[in-house]
Amino acid sequence: MKILKVIKSQPSQDGDGVKINRIAAFDGRLLDPYLMIDELKSDDSQDFMGGFPPHPHRGIETFTYIIKGGFEHQDQMGNKKAIRAGDVQWMSTGSGVLHSEMPLADAKLGMHGFQIWLNMAAKDKMRDSRYGDSTLAPLPSVENETGAQLKALAGSWHFADQAIESPLNDLSTGAALADFTFAPNGSAELSLGEFDTVAIYIHTGSLAGYSAGYLLLIDAKQDVSLLADQQGAGILLLCGRKINEPVAHLGPFVMNTQDELKQAVRDYQNGFFGKIN
Hints:
- The protein has one helix at residues 258-269, and strands at residues 3-8, 10-14, 18-24, 34-42, 52-57, 60-68, 70-75, 80-84, 88-92, 97-103, 111-119, 130-133, 141-143, 148-154, 156-159, 162-165, 176-182, 187-190, 197-207, 210-211, 214-218, 224-240, 248-250, 253-255.
- By secondary structure, it is mainly β.
- The strands form five sheets. Strands 1, 13, 14, 17, 18, 19, 20, 21 and 22 form a nine-stranded antiparallel beta sheet that branches.
- It has a single domain (3-240), classed as Jelly Rolls (Sandwich).
């Protein structure tokens, strides 16, 4: 496994003062098609109880994964869902989404989860918005003989001589995400050469000599070899195909040109994004 770049997440805030650690790649080049990885990990409710009040998006896909705690999602499409530990949620915002994510009452004992932004190709940025989640059934998983378990969060995976597929299988550019949990000294081997971008975000324990909070960008054309230490580990594995298009970013909007960003702001101000009932 060849590590191309190592990035440490940085403390930040978003929403109503929610404390997060962020990997920012809004230029659309470093982690294409991924633009942002936010991790919320705290046992102090003051760090997250403000939540994320109603706000808009255009031109991206948002992907939420909850490990501990939970949020209630609402949007202008009429979706209202409790996203709890083990669940994932996906919005392909397209031409516009207005949504909120507020902590569930039972999240007061702590929260650990992610929101990840994926870019969309120019041809898809103004299509109708789409929504999906995994609340109806547990996500599929498979474990190898060393105690490494892959949970398919999005897309299709082949691991430990088994093929599994997440119910969320229509992400932009065919992106795929998985949560890997490693027992002490657990290991895993994968071939991911069909992707252009492969990244590992360590969220628990340590892996390959790096501790939690680090992202490893690796060579997608080489086989991936993962080995946890004596404490075990938990990682997100993020795979995707590059879009290779210009990126213009302003807050919750990601388009291809500055003029498109200005139009997004005007549309939001004029009520184009609707309202949450």
